[in-house]
């Protein structure tokens, strides 16, 4: 098949309404959420079934045309954005959004890749169960997208990342074949784990079309608290105290700097912090999920927080008295990325650091960055319980954000990524590599690991048509 024949063949396979080629129709698929990357797709294909996904892949394979899979397009590293060549096909899975089944006995939900995470959560809740994967973009992020990046979110501390919650996959290979691997088993030791190979691969090895996900019992009670702290060392001490007392029932532990709260207050004034923003330089949003009842949960949380206050380890705290108050606390946390986006482009980092090194890492890097850029704003927040920091740098007030990023991004990346790797950390905790961090992957990854990754890519995608240029550079 020639490239000239491709679009008519795609329309014949999907229906004319589901192949977009006009620039205005494709605009929403051509740019990433951060508006950092903009491509020029040749067309956007919108399959409605796994068989149609396979048909699109086969047609593109025969024409030698690259495919860029796309879910909710909420990624932060450009992993779902086409290049500027005008030759690539965006394969958007938004029509494939069904929850296919929920098995209450096995506690498994099977959903298609285009199913929005919040919709899957609601389906689980309606069945009396919990899908614990939760992140700020859950109202638009899709199941396929969160698996392709191995997203983490706010409950990793208790339930693990997307990979830990996935039992099986259905996927289309680079050859256009369908792998029907939707296992619901907790144990299946039968050779290479193909599921884990595709999770986190960002669509470079195949296209996830459906997944079976583990469900859990709904907690009998939840308690949420907002705690003011003097420094990151105090936050780590509170984390250890909470872990000792609450064990696996500690389901959320988010670190938030006062700089984050000032941005949220500026752009979302209807959201009010539970404690004065200037009460402390750091805050923690803590959540306990209890299997007994409200009184038991309240007593356990009060014990932890009371001991921290008495010891001077915490400066102040506010405990949500209702579900609405708890949701309001979480809304502040979830609006931090939106506030940053409203403020302008920033230098964004998704760093993993061992919790034991967190306090010194933040103190040392903050000092060095402030010396480098005295007026810059360090907007630091993240999932302290699993060592994942979103360590972002906002331009000085009234400065040109684009110019600031262009001038300082390389030096900031080198400083923070070097510091993280030195203490056994990573330059990418949950956002993935995408386009943004391919150079970092080549620089920091173990050479033997890179050889193995390249070998896997060549074996599964010999034509190099699956999301080329993402994760591994195209020439690798």
TrEMBL record:
Entry keyword annotation includes Flavoprotein: yes
Superkingdom of source: Bacteria
Any one GO biological process: respiratory electron transport chain
Signal peptide annotation: none
Record-linked InterPro entries: FAD-bd_oxidored_4_C, FAD-bd_PCMH, FAD-bd_PCMH-like_sf, FAD-bd_PCMH_sub1, FAD-bd_PCMH_sub2, FAD-linked_Oxase-like_C, FAD-oxidored/transferase_4, Oxid_FAD_bind_N
GO molecular function: catalytic activity; FAD binding
Domain FAD-binding PCMH-type span(s) in chain numbering: 37-218
Record's keyword terms, sorted: FAD, Flavoprotein
Cofactor(s) needed by this chain: FAD
Family according to the record: Belongs to the FAD-binding oxidoreductase/transferase type 4 family.
PANTHER family from the UniProt entry: BLL6224 PROTEIN, D-2-HYDROXYGLUTARATE DEHYDROGENASE, MITOCHONDRIAL
Protein name as catalogued: Hydroxyacid dehydrogenase
Naturally occurring in which organism (per UniProt): Metallibacterium scheffleri
């Amino acid at each position: 098949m020639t490239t000239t024949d491709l679009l008519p063949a795609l329309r014949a396979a999907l229906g004319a309404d589901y192949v977009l080629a006009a620039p205005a129709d494709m605009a929403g698929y051509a740019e990433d959420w951060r508006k950092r990357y903009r491509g020029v797709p040749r067309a956007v294909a919108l399959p409605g079934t796994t068989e149609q996904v396979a048909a699109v892949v086969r047609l593109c394979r025969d024409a030698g045309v690259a495919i860029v899979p796309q879910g909710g397009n909420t990624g932060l590293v450009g992993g779902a954005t086409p290049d500027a060549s005008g030759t690539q096909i965006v394969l958007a899975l938004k029509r494939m959004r069904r929850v296919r089944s929920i098995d209450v006995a096995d506690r498994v939900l099977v959903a298609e890749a285009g199913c929005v995470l919040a919709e899957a959560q609601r389906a689980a809740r309606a069945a009396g169960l919990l899908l614990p994967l939760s992140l700020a973009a859950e109202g638009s992020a899709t199941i396929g997208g969160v698996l392709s990046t191995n997203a983490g979110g706010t409950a990793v501390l208790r339930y693990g990342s997307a990979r830990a919650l996935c039992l099986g996959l259905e996927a289309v290979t680079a050859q256009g074949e369908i792998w029907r691997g939707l296992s619901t088993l907790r144990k299946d030791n039968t050779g290479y784990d193909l599921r884990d190979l595709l999770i986190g691969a960002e669509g470079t090895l195949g296209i996830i079309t459906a997944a079976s996900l583990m469900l859990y019992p709904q907690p009998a009670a939840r308690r949420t608290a907002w705690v003011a702290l003097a420094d990151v060392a105090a936050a780590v001490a509170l984390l250890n105290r909470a872990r000792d007392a609450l064990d696996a029932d500690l389901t959320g532990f988010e670190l938030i700097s006062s700089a984050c709260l000032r941005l949220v207050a500026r752009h979302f004034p209807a959201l009010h912090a539970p404690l004065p923003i200037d009460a402390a330089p750091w805050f923690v949003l803590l959540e306990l999920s209890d299997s007994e009842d409200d009184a038991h949960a309240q007593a356990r949380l009060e014990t932890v927080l009371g001991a921290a206050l008495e010891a001077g380890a915490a400066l102040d705290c506010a405990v949500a008295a209702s579900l609405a108050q708890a949701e309001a606390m979480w809304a502040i946390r979830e609006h931090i990325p939106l506030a940053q986006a409203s403020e302008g482009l920033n230098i964004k980092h998704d760093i993993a650091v061992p919790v034991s090194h967190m306090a010194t890492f933040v103190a040392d890097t903050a000092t060095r960055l402030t010396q480098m850029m005295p007026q810059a704003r360090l907007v630091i927040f993240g999932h302290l319980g699993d060592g994942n920091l979103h360590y972002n740098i906002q331009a000085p007030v009234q400065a040109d954000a684009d110019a600031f990023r262009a001038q300082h991004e390389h030096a900031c990346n080198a400083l923070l990524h070097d510091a993280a790797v030195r203490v056994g950390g990573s330059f990418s905790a949950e956002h993935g590599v995408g386009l943004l961090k391919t150079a970092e992957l080549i620089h920091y990854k173990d050479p033997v690991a890179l050889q193995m990754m390249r070998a896997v890519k060549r074996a599964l995608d010999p034509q190099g048509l699956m999301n080329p240029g993402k994760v591994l550079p195209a020439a690798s």
